[in-house]
Design a protein that fits this description.
Blueprint: H1 9-18, H2 29-48, H3 54-79, H4 104-115, H5 125-134, E1 140-155, E2 163-176, E3 182-190, H6 200-208, E4 215-223, E5 236-240, H7 241-249, H8 260-274, H9 289-299, E6 301-303, E7 309-311
Parallel strand pairs: 3-4, 4-5
Antiparallel strand pairs: 1-2, 2-3, 6-7
Helix pairs in contact: 3-9, 7-8, 7-9
Length: 312
């Protein structure tokens, strides 16, 4: 990043609140590029317009303080509605104990295990809930799940010498209201700190084009910030880890299953390790915004015109 001005310690401290990797040299490349673009734009703007005044910045600071206080009040309101076993109130991260909280393969292997009908006792409830979330407004019912697998090996064909591994692949059949049973294929590519490798998703697209027809393909790009895929022109649906957590959290009737506490600790780890939330969380935490977004989704809360959350 070509910054030629001295950056204050206060700026780095504020940046560490927003992105805790500011001090260890592991800021995502996309974030650094965005920051560089903002800096370049600000320099160009200042050459053409009057320099932003201290009064402007002071006013902005007051607005940001008000916005933060607003979110802290919302967080306090929402926390009062949570059961005692909610992931936001738990101190244990499933992978944090092993320092694997941001390890992509730990998350994708666990995700495939939870989506499949395994010894956890969830059946395919999490998978069906995820598909319904991704296909909003459609009334689907899973009739059969053929396979759920992590690190699924794909052959790119004779034109390419290498092969690839899809993070999570699931396939089966579903019934949709008023329609015949159809085959479906769910493909999830997850990134936490890493970037896409060259042509990664476009290579998956080439492989998907050779799937038996008719099959409805759902492509998902799973990241902490919901960024768009950059190595494919196809329709990869963006999904945040916090959205995934809220989808799973809303599935009811799992408390008596063998895997319930495993799921609890996994969701706590998503919030604690990926989003750096200080769980068990309190309303006066430094960064209330991801917690408020998560709770709005979990509790079914919308936004009114004045920005205050209301129960639907």
């Amino acid at each position: 990043m070509a910054l030629h001005t001295r950056i204050s310690a206060a700026f780095l401290a504020d940046l560490d609140v927003v992105c805790p990797k500011a001090y260890d040299g592991k800021l995502p490349l996309t974030f650094l590029k965005d920051l560089e673009s903002v800096y370049a734009h600000a320099r160009a703007f200042s050459l053409q317009q009057a320099v932003i005044s201290v009064a402007n910045l002071t006013s902005l600071a007051e607005d940001l303080k008000t916005w933060r206080s607003h979110h802290q009040r919302l967080l306090q309101q929402y926390l009062a509605q949570l059961p005692s076993d909610d992931p936001l109130l738990g101190p244990v991260s499933l992978f944090g104990t092993m320092d694997y909280g941001r390890l992509e393969t730990a998350h994708t292997r666990t995700l495939a295990w939870m989506l499949d009908n395994r010894e956890h006792g969830f059946g395919t409830q999490l998978l069906e809930a995820l598909l319904r979330y991704l296909l909003k407004g459609r009334q689907i019912r899973l009739t059969h799940v053929d396979q759920v697998k992590s690190e699924y090996l794909v052959d790119y064909g004779p034109a390419r010498t290498e092969s690839g591994r899809i993070d999570v692949l699931a396939k089966g059949r579903w019934e949709e209201m008023g329609k015949e049973e159809v085959s479906w294929l769910l493909v999830i590519e997850a990134k936490i700190d890493a970037e896409e490798s060259e042509e990664q998703l476009s290579q998956y697209d080439d492989w998907l084009e050779r799937c038996p027809q008719p099959t409805e393909v759902i492509r998902v790009f799973l990241t902490p910030d919901g960024r768009a895929a950059r190595t494919s022109s196809a329709e990869w649906q963006v999904l945040k880890f916090v959205e995934l957590a809220s989808v799973f959290r809303r599935v009811s009737g799992l408390q008596d299953t063998p895997g319930y506490h495993f799921l609890r600790y996994y969701l706590t780890g998503v919030l604690k390790d990926i989003y750096r939330l200080p769980v068990p969380i309190s309303s006066d935490c430094e960064n209330p915004y991801p917690a408020v977004d998560y709770l709005k989704s979990v509790l079914g809360i919308g936004e009114t015109e004045d920005g205050y959350g209301q129960i639907r």
